[in-house]
Amino acid sequence: MSCQLVEIFKTQHGSVHQCNLKNVFRLEFGGHHSFFKISDFLDFIKRVNQIDIAEMAKNMSRNADIAILMPHYTERCFLLTITDILNLREILNGAKFMLQLNSIIRECLHSMA
Predict the structure, then answer these.
(1) Which pLDDT score is estimated for 52?
(2) Rounded to whole angstroms, how far apart are CA atoms 103 and 89?
(3) Across the strands, what pairs with 29?
(4) Alpha carbon of 37 to those of 7, 20, 25: distances in Å?
(5) Surface-to-core class of residue 6, CB atoms within 10 Å of its CB (0-12 exposed, 13-18 middle, 19+ buried)
(6) Residue 95 pLDDT
(7) What is the rounded distance in angstroms from the CA atom of residue 73 to the CA atom of residue 77?
(8) Are 92 and 16 in contact (CB under 8 A)?
(9) Closest CA to 97 of 5, 7, 8, 15
(10) In sequence order, what are the residues at sequence separation of 6 or more whose Cβ sits closer than 8 angstroms to the Cβ of residue 8?
(11) How large is the average pLDDT for residues 28-43?
(12) What value does the mean pLDDT of the chain take?
């Protein structure tokens, strides 16, 4: 996918970039890239934030420390440990905050004009 990518948020574990030409977000995490439409990206953030880490940590069953997310709008399957979930949340929530901040700044500048 050919895009002019603008970095939205980045940590040592990954990043989110926006492509204004195609109106998509690119998530880089775990050495892979996934592309999301805006509504799908926000839905993915919600799904990641809904994972109950406390329940995963206290559950002693064999597979309780792994979460599997298979967004229907990407070709990727996310197999996440508790640490992965925390790192992914940091990236996604940081990107969401930056998008909200940008929107607020635009509103303020527009109202001043």
Answers:
(1) 95
(2) 21
(3) 14, 32
(4) 16, 11, 6
(5) exposed
(6) 97
(7) 11
(8) yes
(9) 8
(10) 15, 16, 17, 18, 25, 95, 98, 99
(11) 94
(12) 91
pLDDT at residue 50, as a whole number: 97
**Residue appearing with tokens 């329940």:** 55
Predicted TM-score (pTM) of this structure: 0.89
Backbone angles phi, psi at 60, to 5 degrees: -95, 0
What is the per-residue pLDDT for 81? 95
| Whole-number pLDDT of residue 75 | 83
Selection from 95, 85, 7 nearest residue 47 by Cα: 85
Residue count of the chain, please give it. 113
| Secondary structure class of 91 (helix, strand, coil) | helix
Q: Using one digit for the tens of pLDDT, what is the confidence trace for 11-35?
A: 999 999 999 889 999 999 999 999 9
Q: Kindly tell me the burial class for residue 34, based on how many C-beta atoms sit within 10 Å of its own C-beta (0-12, 13-18, 19 or more).
A: buried
Helix axes 38-49, 82-112, angle to 10 degrees: 130
